[in-house]
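Preliminary data (for renewal application), NAP complex.
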Amino acid sequence: MAELLRGAPVANALCEAPAREAAALAKKGVVPALAIVRIGERPDDIAYERGATKRCEKVGVRTRGLLLPADVPQDGLAAALRELNADAAIHGILLLRPLPAGMDEDALRNIVSPAKDVDGATDLSSLGIFTGKGDCMAPCTAQACMEILDFYGVDLKGKRAVVVGRSLVVGKPVAMLLLERHATVTIAHSRSADLPAICRNAEILIASAGRAGCIDRSCLSPGQIVLDVGVNADENGGLCGDVDFGDALEIVAAVTPVPGGVGAVTASVLAKNTVAAAKRASQ
Ligand code: NAP
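Predicted structure:
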């Protein structure tokens, strides 16, 4: 029976130092503050905003929700982002995505000031992650995977890691973070030939395809550490990951549950990054 790598203890441990730093900053009159920009009423955005707000409050990060209507023109969103960039009381900006169809997401996410890019959304942050230079922040979900591996003492050096998914939000950055830590990394995607064989060969498997159950027993092998990033609706209206959880429990060494795994850590990374951005801004 696989060990469960739960996110809650990781999230709690991760917030200890930032909470102390936030308190110290507050004493100097700097309250770390995060703006959460939401467009429209997508239920998963609302849920993420709620979770992030709660976690930030615990750490001592003030949040400011900015809700724009689903039909906000692109110029309106761009102006709102520029205003937040110029607002000295805001240290981090989270733009909830995907943006409504028809918006130029590439252009809009790159408006966020690099100093306030606490979710690693800009191309400049990606560049930092890919070059390993500068003190850019990785997308919170990618960083959350690393925090889980570190918390549970998973040694990465020289290990075969497979990342399923190649998005800029999860797959590519987490692959770079693993590489930085000396894992031997393979990135698989929807056109990869023989995905099961690629996955079975992994010692560390990160599933971020966004396809319920696409990682089943044919992709798993004994001894593996499996992180399930996927968040999908199951047939009962609940949440499930990309990994067939029953198969994983039976076969691998350790697996993150969904919900309660990677997703439970993401908001803590966001809070931590906002405190770090506030600290940087105050220096
Ligand atoms: P995305 O942009 O849709 O990317 C999905 C990636 O998976 C693509 O690279 C795609 O390949 C690949 N893929 C799709 N189906 C596949 C298959 N059957 N076999 C192999 N690869 C496949 O999604 P994303 O934004 O990276 O998010 C991925 C998942 O993570 C989603 O379920 C999302 O909800 C979840 N997520 C969770 C958190 C969290 O905090 N837990 C945060 C963000 C996202 P191609 O490039 O070839 O199309």
